Amino acid sequence: MSEPATRRPRHRWRRRQTVLVAAGAALVLLLVAGVFALRSPSPVGHWDSADGHDRYLAAYTEAFADLPEPQQTHDVRTDFGVVRVYRFAGTGDAAAPLVLLPGRAAASPVWADNLPLLLEIGDVYTIDLLGEPGKSVQERPIRDDADQAEWLHQTLQALPEPEFHIVGMSIGGWTAVNLAIHRPATVASVTTVDPVFVFADMPLGTIVRSIPASLPWLPKSWRDSFNSYTAGGAEVEDVPVADMIEAGMQHYRLRLPQPSRISEDELAGLGVPVLAIIAGDSVMHDAERAAATAERALPDGVVHLYDGASHAVNGEHPEQIADDLDAFLERNS
């Protein structure tokens, strides 16, 4: 199944604005989930209204136009719902495809600046996380970390390749590691891009600052302010992917469990190669502590600390990430 989309030229000057400007919504949406779990009996993520969903879909379509044309579009049925997957044909010769997992409240369009470079490595799939704003549709409750791994495992099993290099940003990085812990059969390697809940805890200041932005009835400017804060001060107004993320934050009611912090023992027990990319100026954790944990717990892993990068590191340094990932895969081929 394919979806038509109008293509338009990509604008490199908007990079910091157009990719991961609201990856900090990993935290915001966790708080929103707690607020609304007390107000609604629904056990699965859902839209607050048809109008809210329409607003989101319009923003998604606008943001999606910055991506290359997908070769295929799949809706994969799992025990927990239907998962939207896009396949992009690459020009590289990687033995296994890349699978890109976005941050919370984000979806496939956040990879716009990364995809052209990653396609030089090999074929790429992007996935809209189940239970998040996007085009995946949650149908049954996801109750714990094992369920989070299970829906993704079932999705990958439905694809034709036997193994994949999993690349996750923010909460997508946690999702990638969680998969490798619980359901590693299809995982060839894991790359985390400034992940949350993996190598360090969130600072109290970030938690406190996120609270006003977690209330969807407050003005859009409050959510934009927090999203800009997580992206190192980048402007987020009138930016397609930022509009998409903000619409999801306002209109989608998350029903996902709080992710468990990955322990050092779990990291040490991973049976696949791991590349950890950590943003030096990330507000989502103490970067030096996160890097130290990764180096200590992953003796055979590769750890890169990007000095001066914000949590929007994938949009700030797409070339460096592609180069580091290519070298990592070459080393472990």
From TrEMBL:
UniProt keyword terms in alphabetical order: Hydrolase
One GO CC annotation: membrane
Pfam family, one: Abhydrolase_1
Single GO term (MF): monoacylglycerol lipase activity
A GO biological-process term: acylglycerol catabolic process
InterPro entries found in the cross-reference section: AB_hydrolase_1, AB_hydrolase_fold, AB_hydrolase_sf
Superkingdom in the source lineage: Bacteria
AB hydrolase-1 domain ranges (all copies): 97-230
SUPFAM superfamilies hit by this protein: alpha/beta-Hydrolases
Name of protein: Alpha/beta hydrolase
